[in-house]
Amino acid sequence: MIPQNAIFSCKLKYFGYKNQNRNLILYAKRPLYRFIRTGRKSLVAPSKRKLLFKLLNRYAKKGVCILDVGCGTGKNLEELGNFGKAEGVDNSSEAINFCKKRGLRKVYLVKENKFPFNVNSFDVVTALDVIEHTHDSTILKEIKRVLVPGGKVIATVPAHKIMWTKWDEILHHKKRYSKKELISIFKKQGFKVLFISHVYSFLVIPAILIRKIKSYFRANNYSSDFEITNRLLNKILLFIAEVEQFLVFKFTLPVGTSIVCVVQKSPEDNSVRT
Length: 274
Prior knowledge:
transmembrane; Rossmann fold; alpha/beta
């Protein structure tokens, strides 16, 4: 999901974006600012994508109808098409246009918090790092509306309020969640929690240290805490993430920079929200 005017909100005139290697590159017009990328070269995105497919294989069947909420530049949506019949929505017209340029046709703009689909349209809804940008009750009601009875949601959100930084504000995050809070908001909407755990536990201490250092030196730096450019280090961390993903299905992790969950709409729920 690309929040409208989000990353550019405080320094709009210094940034732009371009298409490079089928990825959307947000780049700095002045050397003072670092590159901010979304795509294959980040640590979290490919790791989170692998986790998504492990969860799909565990909780869904191939060939299902999937809606990717907050499809952004379309990388997840593109790969979801190999698992089932995938469609995407986003509130950014730039993101929708970019998806179409990369050959994705079933992508739609969200207007007034309404998805352009009938009730009971999808077996699975994915919402990776989306809910934190919204009033969670509003988007969860809409997700529930388009899900078939018994349909599932796979979602990730940023964890731990103590880890809130300026970067969250730039990305237009409304909050970071505790596991208890996330369970509560899903249950209030009538979902059953099938799986929930923190992930990226190995990044918690580095993240806190980096943020404390930035705070101590009053660093006015609008880049992510994990802008990893060293390929070897990136491979090592991706391997650690792989090991963690194996463990997360054995026991839930008590801490992590993100929370991942799988929830289910009641099989008896045929309610229609207008």
